[in-house]
Amino acid sequence: MKRLSSLKIIYLVLSFGLFAIALLSVWFGTAEISFEDVFKIIANALFRTDIFSVNHTSQIIVLQLRLPRMILALLCGASLGVSGSVLQCLFNNPMADPYVMGISSGAAFGVTLSVISGLGLPFLVQLSSFGGALLSVVLVLVLSGITGKPGQSLVILLSGIAVSLFFSALTSMFMYLNQEQAEKIMFWTFGSLSGANWTKCFQIAVFVLPVLGLLFFQWKTLNLLSQGDEAARSLGIDPPKARLFLLILTSLITSFTVSVTGIIGFVGLMVPHILRLMMGPNHKTLLPLSALGGALVLVLSDSISRVILSPSEIPVGIVTSLIGAPYLFLTIAMKQKVRIP
Amino acid sequence: MRSGTVFNSLLEVRELSWAYKRDFALNNISFSLYPANRIGIIGPNGAGKSTLIKVLLKIHKPPLNSIFIKGTDICGLTQSRLAGYLSYVPQIAADPGHFSVKEIVQMGRYVYGHCDSSEDKQIVESALGALELSLLQNRNIAELSGGEFQRVLLARALAQKTEILLLDEPTNHLDMVQQLRILRTLKKEQQKRGFSILSVFHDINLALDFCTHILVMKQGQLISFSESKDLFESEILDDVYQLKFTRVKDRGSHSQYLIASLR
């Protein structure tokens, strides 16, 4: 019973936290718009009226810039949080996430290829991003299979880091060779929500939300996979098949997220890691909580990225890495029982 | 058409051979498991006992036309269908994470696609109760002792409600009290619910005491398949283990024991 009630509390805290930070992120910004005006603008838009008279510029800033940006951050954050918790289970590694495992870098490399190809085909960016993500997953699996017993968490982690470095280097090389496109590509390597608009929100919602839903329904499979392959088989799943299916789904949402926002690291690592420590490893609760938590962390990080050096802003990927890298360091240090001076 | 006995048997193993990198780990094994049987598998190290269990569970890929459950070749069954017939208590569990006892036992219900119906809840509670885990159900399994953890895995298998239960050395790593207790519980539940057991044993005396039938294996071969009481009298074990067994019977308790000594 103790766990159940704490579960309700954490759902409430995360939902209210997310709501509050989402509101704040629409309010904060270089252009000063009063809290009251934000409410009026949203109310006007919601009820399709003009009851409240508000400055037209403020209206555009809130409705066409800040609101879609907040929604995009929310969707991408949820996607990153869920990808992270699925990968941590699949690789039996609490430090796995799309960034550390090289999937994001693979996806960004795919995006780079499609950008320098100059072909303006619809969905080419998403498709090549997905291709890059799948390629990196295959490489990680092959590398960790060759160099060690599959399932050894350190080997898998190192394979992921190697693949990540490899694709980053390839992306840098193409940036160097195509100087005229470099700035465009750089956007993906940093990870930013600055290009947010309703079309992007719509794209992400249409492709990512159904997959997230599908992943939520896989909680039983994920729980069984965490019991070891022999037990998982006897409890009714085929582990290699299940893993492949889940990896493809995870690559799909990661690559779509990367194709819109670029590489945003560590959200997928920190959020499920903290939630698992707090709430236990049951994916029935861990997956929705990771979605909520990921959304919260990314909306918050994005707000920080916009106000910290106001009036200019920094890419959100830099903020999440600045928070995430020390977090990774601390978890490794704590695992090794290193005394931190 | 197969003969009538095939349909009566829950599990039929027919001329099963299985090779691991060209070395035969199982060589031409045939036996049948009938309802309410408790079959023990014994034999020296390297006999293929665990391999047999793993082939039955499709952890190792079984050859065609060699293993039948109620007349159906298991090669044609999905892992999920198979899990509706066979449950399993592994010998060494991987680090299962910080699940609660109840969450682990509920996993036995996953194969049915749901684990929260009132029937599921009642089955999980009854499995927890049978293994005296009701008071521990919200505990983190990382905090349990080896004996308690073994009971959790057994409760999970019971919650799966299959007709056949496979065990790989269920008493491994347990002290003597725990060993006897877990076997007594298992026997009680088996008689109450009427499922069949196929279990690997390391300890011959525990096997003889617990099982109705014993499979004796050596180097991948099936040496004998007989009722436990017949095996006690025969000389087969002396040959298989290359030991001298002294047979001891206690008239008071009707217990019988084999005492091994080197030749």
Question: How would you characterize the overall build of this protein?
Answer:
- The complex is a heterodimer of chains A (341) and B (263).
- Chain A has 341 residues and is mostly helical.
- Chain A has helices spanning 2-27, 35-47, 56-90, 103-117, 124-147, 153-177, 179-190, 198-216, 219-225, 229-234, 239-261, 267-279, 283-307, 316-335.
- Chain A is 77% helix and 0% strand.
- The radius of gyration of chain A is 20 Å and the shape is globular.
- Chain A starts with a helix and ends in a 6-residue tail after the last helix.
- Chain B is built from ten helices and twelve strands.
- Chain B has a six-stranded mixed beta sheet, sandwiched between helices. A four-stranded antiparallel beta sheet of chain B has the order 2-1-4-5, covered by helices on one side.
- In chain B, helix 5 runs antiparallel to helix 6 (146-159).
- By secondary structure, chain B is of the alpha/beta class.
- Helix content of chain B is 33%, strand content 27%.
- At the A-B interface, helix 9 and helix 10 of A face helix 3 and strand 6 of B.
How large is the radius of gyration of chain A? 20 Å
Q: Which sheet architecture does the biggest sheet of chain A show?
A: none
Give the name of the CATH architecture of the largest domain in chain B.
3-Layer(aba) Sandwich
Briefly note the structural class of the backbone of chain B: alpha/beta
Q: What is the global morphology of chain A?
A: globular
**Looking at this structure, what is the CATH superfamily of chain A?**
ABC transporter involved in vitamin B12 uptake, BtuC
- Total number of distinct structural domains of chain B: 2
What does the oligomeric state look like here? heterodimer
**CATH class call of the largest domain in chain B:** Alpha Beta
Radius of gyration of chain B: 19 Å
- Could you describe the largest sheet of chain B, including whether it forms a barrel? 6 strands, mixed
- Mean pLDDT across the residues of chain B is 90
The shape of chain B is globular
SS class of chain A: mainly alpha
CATH topology of chain A: ABC transporter involved in vitamin B12 uptake, BtuC
